[in-house]
Amino acid sequence: MTWTKVAEKGDIQSGSSKEFEVEGKKIAVFNQDGFHALDGICQHQDGSLAPKGKIEGDIVECPLHFWHYNIKTGELMDYLKGIKLKKYDVDVRDDGIYVDA
Ligand code: FES
């Protein structure tokens, strides 16, 4: 795993998200009660969770067919069990936001 700078501080507004490509992976970074990073691609049919996924509390809703994931754990919150998006560590440093991908 490698720490990669993805954004400047302030690039991701509170309550919103952005998608970044890091090490060939699409990663969604959420600014909601701190910064959180997950695989950005929904496990249903490859919908992009950021920036269009609706965020409510700890939950992001996929914009395509409305699956719900916990942005802090990556767990799917709907009826299917055992589906989880990979979670990545985030570090907010003086010069920007870094993801360990
Ligand atoms: S692609 Fe996300 S719910 Fe279908």
TrEMBL record:
Domain of life per record: Archaea
Cofactor: [2Fe-2S] cluster
Residue ranges annotated for the Rieske domain, each copy included: 4-99
InterPro entries the UniProt entry points to: Rieske_2Fe-2S (IPR017941), Rieske_2Fe-2S_sf (IPR036922)
Gene Ontology MF term list: 2 iron, 2 sulfur cluster binding; metal ion binding
Keywords in alphabetical order: 2Fe-2S, Iron, Iron-sulfur, Metal-binding
Iron-sulfur in keyword set: yes
PANTHER family linked to this entry: FERREDOXIN-RELATED, RIESKE DOMAIN-CONTAINING PROTEIN
Name assigned to this protein: Rieske [2Fe-2S] domain protein
Organism: Candidatus Nitrosopelagicus brevis
